[in-house]
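Limitations

Structures in this collection are predictions, not experimental determinations, and the ligand pose is part of the prediction. Treat each record accordingly. The example that follows, with iron/sulfur cluster as the small molecule, is included so readers can see exactly what is and is not provided: the inputs are given verbatim, and the output is the predicted complex.
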Amino acid sequence: MAGQTTSGTSLKFADIIADPVIRERWEKVRQYFFLRESTYDMTNRCNIRCEGCYYYNGEKQFAKENSNEEEWRQLMVAEKERGITFAVLAGAEPSLVSRLCRICYEHIPLGAIATNGLKPIPLDIDYRIHISVWGNDRTSKEIRKAGDMLVRQMDNYRDDPRSIFVYTFTPHNIDEARQVTERLADRGQQITFNMFSAPVGYEGPLRHTSESLLRTGEMMAGLLADYPRTVLFSHYNIVAHTSGTGLHDLFSCTYPRMNPSTAIGLGRSFRQYRTDLKWDRDAACCVPDTDCDDCRHYAAGSAVVTARMYRHAVNRETFSAWLDYVDTYLAVWVRGYKKGVNLIDYPVQPPESQETQKSL
Ligand code: SF4
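Predicted complex:
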C-alpha cells in the first residue's frame, strides 16, 4: 500500500509504521480489528423524555416490544454465528430491561449500553456503560425534564470501571461542559464528547450552527488539555466532529443506510434491530432517523472514521491522527482497553475523500 505525503511524494505504509511510536500504537489497535458491531433497541420505554431524542423519531419507536427471553437468546446465538462480536444496546432505555441486556452479554461478551444512568445496570453485565449528559442539572431539567441528573448518575456509577459519561454538546450547553467535567474529575470518573445531531426534519434550537461548532471545538480542546486523565478524546476527534460538514461528507458513511455495498465491512455485517427483533437495511445505522447532513454523532464517527484506515495512511501525521481516533474509540467502547497518550496535539485536516471505499 502506498500513499501521498504532504509534499506529494509516495510513502509506503511500511515507511509510515517504521516510526517506532506509530508502530507501537498501530500494533495496539489492530488487535481489535476483529470487532463487528450490531445495535439492538432493547425496549420502546424510557423513564425520561428528552427534546430531540433520536429514538422517538421515525418508525422504530412504534415497533412492538418483544421481551421474550428465549427469542432474545435465539437472536444472540444467530448474531454470534453470523460473526457479530460487539453488541451495542440502546433505545429507548436499556436499564429498564436488564434481564434482556444480560442475555446479550452472556452470548456476546463485548459490548456497550447507552443509558441515561438513572437506574443502575447490574454489575454482572460487564459491558461498557455510556451515561448520557446534556448539560448541568438546570439544563438537564429543561431538556430532559429530570432533576439532579448528574449527581444521581455519578452516585449510581461511583467507582464503576464500566462507566463513562458522554456529554452531548448543543449550542446552548457549551460552557457548562467545564463544570460537568470538573465534577467528574473530582470523583475520578471519565467523560467523552458527543455532538447533538438533528433528527430528520428537526428544526428546533438544539441544531448546531457554524458559530456553535467553533465554540464547541474550542471547549473540547480546552478540556482535553486541562483534564487529560478525565477526558477520553483526541484532537482528531475534535476535527471530525466539529467540522462544518458532517461525518458523511467528510468520510463517506459506511453504514447500510448510506452504503449500498454488501461486499465488506459495515455494509455487509451491520444490523440495527428494533424492539420487535426485526431490522430494515434501508434504515440501518447506529443513529437511525438522524439527518445524515447533520450527523456528527460520536457513535457514528466511531465506525465511520475508524473504517477509513486506508484513506488516512498517506503520511505519518495523518495516520497518527487516525490512530488517536481509533485509540479513543476503543477506550470509550471496549471494557478494559486503556487509552494511550495522544500522538498528535493539534488539528489535522481529514484527507481528501476517495472513490475507492475500503474497510477494516
Ligand atoms: S445518520 Fe450518520 S451514521 Fe446514520 S447513515 Fe446518516 S451519516 Fe451514517
